[in-house]
Every structure is written in structure tokens, then in C-alpha cells.
Amino acid sequence: MASNTVRRLSFCFELLFLILLPTFSSVLATSTVEGFSIQEASVYDLQLAFRRNQLTSRQLVEFYHNQIQIQNPVLRGVLELNPDALAEADKADQERKAKAPHSLSPLHGIPILVKDNIATKDKMNTTAGSFALLGSVVPRDAGVVTRLRKAGAIIIGKATLSEWSHYRSDAAPSGWSARGGHGKNPYTMGDPCGSSSGSAISVAANLVAVSLGTETDGSILCPSDSNSVVGIKPTVGLTSRAGVVPISPRQDTVGPICRTVADAALVLGTIVGIDTNDKATIKASKYIPKGGYAKFLRKDGLRGKRLGVLRHFYDFGSDTFLHKTFELHLKTLRERGAVLVDNLEIENINEIYSGTSEGIAMAFEFKYSLNAYLKDLVTSPVRSLADVIAFNNKHPKLEKVEKYRQGLMLQAEKISGSKTLKQALLNLTRLSQDGFEKVMKGNKLDAVVVPFAIFSPVLAIGGYPGITVPAGYEKGVPFGVCFGGLRGSEPKLIEIAYSFEQVTMIRKPPPLPKL
């Protein structure tokens, strides 16, 4: 077995190789330590390499640091690095030597990137991408971060995002924030989709293997779909939102973005659970399966599952590449034992997508929940939504964006009227019960299967879960398939998504960006 010195020299040589050849394909950029390839490695791969003494957590953090140094100036997926990450890696390496392997969590020693609206009580900032919160001090780690640290994970840094989780303005481009700049899809150098854009960019480009995102409406599913990675949008309340810069407590949820369904299920199992700082987790805890989600990683997970096909979302034109691709995917689902209930319709689908109730409810919820979050900070330059708006008006150059680009914030600050909110909430409940739930229960479905992330509003307004899995590339542009279900249906969705992933194995890494 090679000495630690030899291993380190070998690793450093590989990093030098990457630096000298940044424009080569990601295959040539693969880093190998003791015969183990870090590029595209899953959490399961990394843990096996740890056990075989082929890799250390320090080497892993150093590799990701190097990848970030090379690619992030172009991709802008990482906003800030944890200055203590290497020290935490050294601690993990020491613990691995001192403790029995079975006593350590599957995430022990694994670097994880968290979206910059998720609080970390350390030397990093939590700003939702805005200079208005730079220098603020959070009272504690977010609930999900507490669970990750307890599992021995290393918080390597903060991911970029659409500023204020894309609730600053509809006019601001997806993936843009004042602090982070404009994130780029590593496959296209174009739109990464928001708002967990940096989380998806970084996982797709191998800047990290695991990240956390948040979703209010599409913010995990859409960037995962656009960047050819796996994203799980959990049932609202399944994961704690305590310590997360909020938009809507009724719709906000925290979930994993990874390159494989297995990794995403593993991370989900780590971050779910009751948090006394988020009362919604108490009610949702009934959905958590005993023994975690790994047991639902079944290659035959599609067998016997009833999947609804909503043709409203498949209108590509019969001769198009997308039509042919998704018809092949539906055929694959049937061949793997799924029962496809085709040509289903959600009767109120047009009202869901064109109605105003979701926007009205979110405006109310954003104002009051953000004010509560800001008041709870230990120190902060801003203490209310009104303060944030005033900051943006006072520092237009710092924010690097025109004043009109905080339109959503201005609407939220001005909105009032309890009757208006009550009616909006009643409408959303009706739309969910008479729409998605009626179709699911009436047809005894386990899930629906929908192209892309376009189904996110239906899942969002009812607090339902969804999983997106890579489904193909059209002229190099990635797209995914989404499986959605009723509240608490994560075990079924994981079975379905894992089985589909294992039979298709579509994902491929992006080329390294040209510098």
C-alpha cells in the first residue's frame, strides 16, 4: 500500500493535470486517487473508497476545491466556501480511523453544498444571494444543516441561487443574484433554471457530489431537469424549513440534488424528521418510513405501479425528437411492469396555471414570514421586507440591477386584506382536491409521469412531492422526466424513479467550460 505522502503527491499531480488542461473533456479531467475516480462518483462510491483506503475526506475536499477554482469563474454555481472545510475533513478522517465503519453515517466525511438561503452558524454568510443580508448573523444552523452535521457531513460551502429564491422580481434572469452573478448551465452555458440553480449546476459539473436546494414552486425540479441531475422535492413538512429564508411556509420545502436517485434518497433520509422549530414537521413525520429510504431502491420498483399519463403535457408534435423520446420512455415503463393509465386529464388544469390565487397567497406569506425571519436574526442590516426594498433602492450599483427588478417584493409589501388571502387559500385547496387528488385517487394511481418540470405548480400548491430524473438530451440540451405523487408518497416515487434510472442510465457529465 502506498504511503500517505505518495498518495498526496499522486493526488496533487492529478490536480495539476486538471489545471493545465481545463478545456479538455470531463473524461480527460477525471481525477484518480489510488486507482479511484472521483469524477462522477456517487456517495456510495466515495464511502467504498474511504473503506478501502483509496481516498480521504481531505483529498475529496481538495479535489472539489480545485474543480471549483477551475470551473466556477464561468459557471458561478458556488457562492462561498467554508474556510473550515479542510479542518472538518481532517476530523472526519481521524474519526474514520478510530471508529468501526458500521458506526458511521453514510454521509460521514462527504462534502455537501447548501443553497445560500439555508442558514449555517459558522464563518459563512446566509444571504439568499443579496447584499442586503451580507454580514447578518443567524441564531443557529438550519434544521437540515443540524442533521447533516450530526451525520458527519462536511458543509463545503454555499451555492448560488436566483436572488431571494427568485422572489425579487419576475424580470430578473433565472440563476442571477447580486452576490453570485449569473449562474450558467454547464451543458449549454445558458439558463440553469431557478432558484436552486447553483445547487444543480455544481452537482452536474462535479464541483460536488451532493447539494441541498429548496423549492416553493419548481426550484428543485426545474434546475435538476435543466442540468441533468436528480432532484427530490419532498412533501411539505417532511424536511424542516427552520433557518431557511422563506417565501411560503405553506409551499416551501428543502430537498436533495444529486447525480443518482440512490444518493438523493440517502440524503433525504438524513434530513427528514421532527424539528421543534418547524411545527409542520410534526404532522409530516407520519410519512417517514422506518429504516429510511434505501430499502426502496429496487430495480423492479416499477412492477405493478399504476402511473398516470397526462397527455396535456406531451404536446410536442408527433414527428419531434421529444415526442419519440418520451414515447420510448413510456414503453420502457410498461416493459418494466408499470401499468400506464393513459389520456388522463386534470379538469381544472388551466385554472391552476392561469389563476392568481397562488401568487396572491405567496405575496402575503412572503411578507409576513420574511419579516419574522429577519427579526429573529442576531444581527442584520435589514429587519423587514420594507428595509430590504429600501436597501435595494439605496444601493442600485451594489445590487447591479435596475430598481424595477424588485417588483415581486414591492407587490408583497403593498398587499393587504385578510379576505383576499382567505379566498386565495380556499381556491388553492379546492384546486388541489378537485384536480390532482381527484385524478390520483379516482384512478388509484401511485404517481403521474410528466415531461420536464412543468408539473411543478400542481405539486406546489398542494404540498405534494416529486422526483425528476435525467431523460435525455436534445442537441446537447438536457431534459428530465418527473414523477409526482400525493403527500407522503416518497417511498413509491423513489421505487419508480430508481427503477427508471437503472434501466435507462441516461445521465452523462457536461464538458468542462472553456475558459
UniProtKB/TrEMBL annotation:
Family annotation (Pfam families): Amidase
UniProtKB keywords: Signal
InterPro entries attached to this UniProt entry: Amidase_dom, AS_sf
Keyword Signal: yes
Residues in coiled coil: none
Gene3D superfamilies in alphabetical order: Amidase signature (AS) domain (3.90.1300.10)
Boundaries of every Amidase domain copy: 60-457
Protein's UniProt keywords contain Signal: yes
Signal peptide: 1-29
Protein name: Amidase domain-containing protein
Organism: Phaseolus vulgaris (Kidney bean)
Record lineage: Eukaryota, Viridiplantae, Streptophyta, Embryophyta, Tracheophyta
